[in-house]
Write a structure and sequence with these properties.
This protein is an alpha/beta fold. It contains 11 helices and 8 strands. The chain has 2 domains: 35 residues; 327 residues, TIM Barrel. Helix 5 runs parallel beside helix 6 and helix 9 runs parallel beside helix 10.
């Protein structure tokens, strides 16, 4: 090979390197331009909820929302609809990934934006981190030896959010085997978890209201592998002496195919079934304690067997809020499931929502906005 050939090859190599560098630079520029600029999110002045029904609430489900502007806009829409209350889920595993090491960043973001919108926050706390449960168990499994760990976390949460989060729910639907770590429901075990948590929170943040878990509405008899009737479970909690271990009771009130005024019955799961739970409270001397509906409502999925039409859902939901306002002096809030999911669930769950993942109001949102502000409801005109 001649000297000239070597020179030509070096020149060609240099030229190729230059072109590769230009291509990479252009690709980097294109990538930079394709990424939208991060939105500047400011809290702004504290807002006030304008509503004719102070008991309207929703379950916001912002747990997995990662974009702050969407958190802010979701909570703005809650306020604009006329709902002063929200229930939000704060998983233990998210905030304490390692024992004693707390990460409050996301929870702080949600709470601060909720307060800026003038909303009252009810926090639901469960979902056990891996380090606090036996290997091979689900995040809903908690062993008795780990009850003190859960109580410490709930106490740390109460202290961190003292004066900001006024209500804390201890666990969720422990009368279902699924929610109790695929074990038979154990009222005695949950009563102990509740009482340990209650005592710890009250010592650290006495003004925080501790709520006993919302029970799943079910007719399951004793010994059923999937769950236990919510009325029987609640009575069992009182029998265990846990009446002294909660300031109020969370309740779940799903209507399924029944109207909001369908009367309660021990053999039926409907919206007014919560009145039977209230009877259990009164019978056990807890008539002065309030209750909070922290899940519930109707679904308008066209192919789910337990759903109703969109117009029925609107009518039943308005009637439910009205019943709480006019007749249930023992009920402080009715927070229905679920205001919005960050991403589509692609199941019937999507039709429990009030707003789409893209923050587009569904008809029920629009009508509840009218109801909460005393305006005529358009669905009445459409009904036969």
């Amino acid at each position: 090979m001649t000297t000239q050939d070597h020179s030509n090859r070096r020149a060609s190599a240099r030229s190729a390197i230059v072109w590769v560098g230009r291509i990479l630079a252009l690709a980097g520029l294109a990538l930079h331009l394709s990424v939208p600029p991060q939105r500047l999110v400011l809290l702004g002045p504290t807002q006030r909820v304008v509503t004719m029904n102070s008991k309207i609430g929703v379950h916001t489900r912002l747990t997995d929302e990662v974009e702050e502007w969407k958190i802010q806009r979701t909570l703005e829409m809650v306020r604009e609809m006329g709902a002063p209350w929200i229930v939000e889920y704060f998983p233990w595993a998210y905030a304490e990934p390692r024992e004693g090491h707390y990460d409050w960043a996301h929870a702080d973001m949600v709470v601060e934006h909720a307060l800026a919108q003038g909303l009252t926050v009810i926090a639901r706390i469960d979902y056990v981190p891996e380090w606090a449960r036996p290997e091979g168990t689900t995040p809903r499994y908690i062993a008795e030896d780990d009850y003190p760990r859960y109580a410490r976390y709930v106490t740390a949460f109460a202290e961190h959010f003292e004066g900001k989060v006024s209500h804390i729910i201890i666990w969720n639907e422990p009368n279902l085997a699924f929610e109790w770590g695929y074990r038979p429901p154990d009222p005695a075990g949950y009563a102990e978890l509740l009482c340990q948590s209650y005592r710890a929170v009250k010592e650290a943040a006495p003004a925080t209201q501790v709520l006993a878990a919302g029970l799943a509405p079910t007719l399951a008899p004793p010994g059923d592998e999937f769950g236990l009737d919510d009325r029987l479970y609640l009575q069992a909690l009182y029998d265990e002496g846990s009446g002294a271990c909660f300031d109020g009771l969370a309740m779940h009130a799903y209507g399924y195919t029944f109207a909001a005024d369908d009367p309660p019955s021990p053999d039926r799961v409907n919206f007014r079934r919560v009145e039977l739970l209230r009877e259990v409270m009164v019978a056990n001397g807890d008539g002065e304690k309030p209750a909070y509906i922290t899940e519930g409502g109707w679904n308008d999925h066209p192919r789910w067997t337990r759903s109703v039409s969109s117009l029925q859902r609107i009518r039943y939901t308005v009637d439910a809020y009205e019943r709480a306002r006019l007749s249930w002096d023992w009920c402080e809030a009715v927070c229905l499931w679920a205001f919005r999911f960050p991403v589509a669930q692609r199941t019937y769950q999507d039709r429990f929502t009030f707003v789409t993942p893209d923050l587009i109001p569904r008809p029920i949102y629009t009508e509840l906005d009218r109801y909460a502000h005393g305006e005529p409801l358009e669905y009445l005109v459409q009904e036969p």
